[in-house]
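New to this. Please check this protein:
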Amino acid sequence: MSTTAKLMLLLVARGVRDSFMGILKLHRLDEDVHDESTSSSSRKDEPLSALARRRSEHLKHTERKHDSSEPRVLQRMLLCCAWNGGLFLLSILVFNGLIIPGLQFFIHLIFGGSSTHNIVWSWVGPMLSWTFSALWVLPLFLLSKLVNSLWFQDIADAAYRRTRGRPQMLPTFGKIIADIIFSLLLQGLFLIQGTLAVFLPITVIGQLISLLHMCLLYSLYAFEYKWFSMGWEVHKRLSYVESNWPYFVGFGLPLAVFTSISSSAVINGCVFSMVFPLLIISGNEAEPIDETFNYPLRLFTPVVIISNAIFQHSVKRTNVHQVAHPSQSASATHRQVRLQER
C-alpha cells in the first residue's frame, strides 16, 4: 500500500511539474521555426547552377511568406492576456474597485451621513451594477468565449505542427462532428457532476471531490487538442485519463486552484482564459505515460452512460422522423441519383 501511495504522489508531482512546462517552452516554439529555416538556408555549400539558384531563391521566398503569415504562439498568448486580462478583467476590477466606491463617496458627500444616503445608494448601487453587467460584462463574456475558442485552437494547432508535424485527424467528417458533439456534451455533464459534489453532507469531502473533478476536466481540456490531432477518439481519451488519473490530477491542479480564488465566476473565467493557453502548450509538450496506474478512477462512467443514452435517443428520433416522412427521403434520394447521372 505504501508503494502505491508513493507512486500516486510521484505521478501527481510529475503532473504539476509538467503543467508549468508551457512557460519554459513558450518562447522556444517560435525560435525553433526560425532556427530550422536559417539552418536549412546555410546548409548548402556546393555551387549551384543558375536554374537551381533561381528555384532555391523562389523556395526560400515562399517559405518566408508562409512563416510570416502563420500565427505565432507567443503572439496568440499575448492577445489572450491582453483581451482577457487587460480589457475584460481590468474593466471589472476598475468598476468594482474604483467607480463604485467613488460614486458611493460622492453620494455620501452630497447627502452626508443621513438616512437619505442609504436610501439613495440602495437604489443607485444595484442599478449601476446591473447596468454594467447587462451592457458590458455579459456581451463581452459571450464574445470572449467565441474569441478564446478560436485563439485556443490557433495556439494548439501551431504548437502541434511545430513539434509533432501534420495532424492525424479522424477518418471521416461525420466522425469528427460526432466526436466533438459527444465530447462537449460529456464535458458539460461532468462539470455539473463536479458542481453537485459540493452539496455532499460532509463539506470538506464534497469540496475535495469537486476539486478532483475540476483537475481532471482541465487536464482533459488541455490534452484534448493534442489527442484530437493524433486521431484519438473520445472513449480512448477518457480511458487514458481514468487509467492515469493521479498524473492528470496534478496537471490540472494549478489551474483549478487559480480559478477558485475569487468568488466571482466571471473573474475566474478571465483567469482561466489567461492561464489555459499555457496548459495547452504544456499538454502538447508533455511526454506520454508508459505505465498505467493500477487503480483507475471511473469518474467519467456516469456521464458517459448519460451521454450515450442521449445520443441513442436522438438517433431513434431521427430514424422515426425518416420513417414518418418516406416520400421526402425518397425524393431526396431521387434528386441525388439525378445529380450523379448528370
